[in-house]
Amino acid sequence: MHTYQSLSGTQKFLDEIQKKQWRGEIHSTFKRTINIICTEGELYTIAAAELDNAPNTLRVADFFDRRSLLVEKTPVFSQDGHLVIGKIAAIEIQGAHIWQYPKIEFPTKQEYVKIKERIKQINSWLSQLESKGGYLLNTTQATTYEKMIHTMLWKESEQLLIYLKAKQLFQAMKQLYRVIGLGPGLTPSGDDFLVGLALIFTTVDYPYHSFSQWLINSRNELKKRTNTISFSTLDWAIQGESRERIASFLNELFYGKEEERLKEKMLAVLRIGSTSGGDMLTGMVAGLELTLALISDTENEKNGY
């Protein structure tokens, strides 16, 4: 059995490994990640060193050279400060850097004009991309099926935003269930859009608390309507957490000053999955545009317009 060194991980995952009775099994394997489901049903991830940090994730050096031996249902357990994977490998956690998703504060009123300009720039960049799937599909190069899914995604998502803008949260909840699970892939585009939306609604000092509570209230039903991996990503977003590169993008969007840095952070998000990054970006932009529109409406009401 070979021992590998962990580079970084979340406090929660590292604490779990320290427990003598922590057990699980391999849920799914990919080129640069392995998902483990513990006995309580929660998903954890071992990621390659070149990937960024994320919730419930342990980044490990040189681990994936034996990926072919790691198969579903292989038992995983904690032992003497190591994460042991069958009879194949042990991961040493001592010395691992503790990573925590940063607190991201919703911008103050003074930032709104700049943020609107940044959103306009992001939408311009996204419109110039080569053909991608999901929400950013270039329909001139798409199949009939891809066009149909693209139309459905926008139709259902825009209706959801209409209900949210009207603060009709009961109708919005029913519409939410039309977006979850919509689209092909391991993490459907509709789910990734909701991840982006949730990450705006759960920023610190977000002005419409009812939106984050609305998502929490929808959690159990959302879990029934998509797969384990996709729900895990969405559930963390509902708790206000996501990948390191998304946090970097949001901080740059809210408080950055350099256009090139914003584009660099945006492109890093776009590299998540096949279409997931683009779909998450679409959700974040939609959530921010919705919020700024609501704030503007509130100001107009106060001023008697």
Give an overview in words.
- There is one protein chain.
- With 305 residues, the chain is α/β, with parallel strands linked by helices.
- The chain is 49% helix and 16% strand.
- It has ten helices and nine strands.
- The chain has an eight-stranded mixed barrel with strand order 1-5-4-3-2-6-7-8.
- β6 and β7 form a beta hairpin.
- The radius of gyration is 20 Å and the shape is globular.
- It starts with a strand and ends with a helix.
Q: What amount of the residues lies in strands?
A: 15-25%
What coarse outline follows from CA principal-axis ratios? globular
Report on the biggest sheet: 8 strands, mixed, barrel
Give the proportion of residues in helices.
40-55%
Label the structural class: alpha/beta
Order of helices and strands: EHEEEEEEEEHHHHHHHHH
Number of strands: 9
Task: Kindly provide the radius of gyration, computed on alpha-carbon positions and rounded to a whole number of angstroms.
Answer: 20 Å
> What value does the average pLDDT take?
93
Low-confidence stretches: none
**Assembly type:** single chain
| Individual helix count | 10
